Amino acid sequence: MKPLPIILQRFKELEEKIKDVEITRRETDWTDAINSEVFEEWANSVLNLLQRVFGEDSVHFKNFIAIYKGFEGWAGTFDRCKGIFRAAKSDYEGGYLFKIESLVSAEVIDDVLEQAQHLLDNEYKDPAAVIARVALETTLKKLCDKNTLPKGKLDKMNADLAKAGVYNISMQKQITAWAGKGNDAAHGNWDNYTKEDVADMINGVQRFIAENL
Q1: Which residues make Cβ contacts (< 8 Å) with residue 38, sequence separation at least 6?
Q2: Domain boundaries, the chain
Q3: What does the pLDDT look like over 54-70, one tens digit per residue?
Q4: Which CATH architecture is the domain 100-212 placed in?
């Protein structure tokens, strides 16, 4: 999707407003702190923009609001929010606008994994993990259709497919591990995995698809 000038301008304005928060940064005995009122004004404007542009189900919106809710006056929270905002800004400017649900409904698995790899190559390991999980879940749905099994939540489909002998228990456990990384990414638990873990996940899902579809 071609970026709209009015949205680009709003991203630019909120990038400038980062300076207003930065100048309130002060040292304390524990760690740097910032002015809560100035930060919250900026953060709420960012949330409004992310909701309108990417949607409430987007990785950017979910990750930003999860961190924002934990704000207690410390600059570290602002720094993490700032990073997510700039990643969203970069994605929009680059034309990488998408919603997770649209990728699921499209069920173009190769394209989804290609998008995940592209994000990972550009140092966006967290959205890459979420996208790889989308590809994994879509693959399980296709396998359920292929084997006349009911579709449902990922864990249930995984268990049913293993029980039906579509793949073995070892693969079932591996799928659970991959899904866990995607869940960690979606819920902001970014320290639970590395870029290398996500790369292994993408490669593993690709092999799984090649062997089973």
Answers
A1: 20, 21, 24
A2: 5-93, 100-212
A3: 888 888 999 999 999 99
A4: Up-down Bundle (1.20)
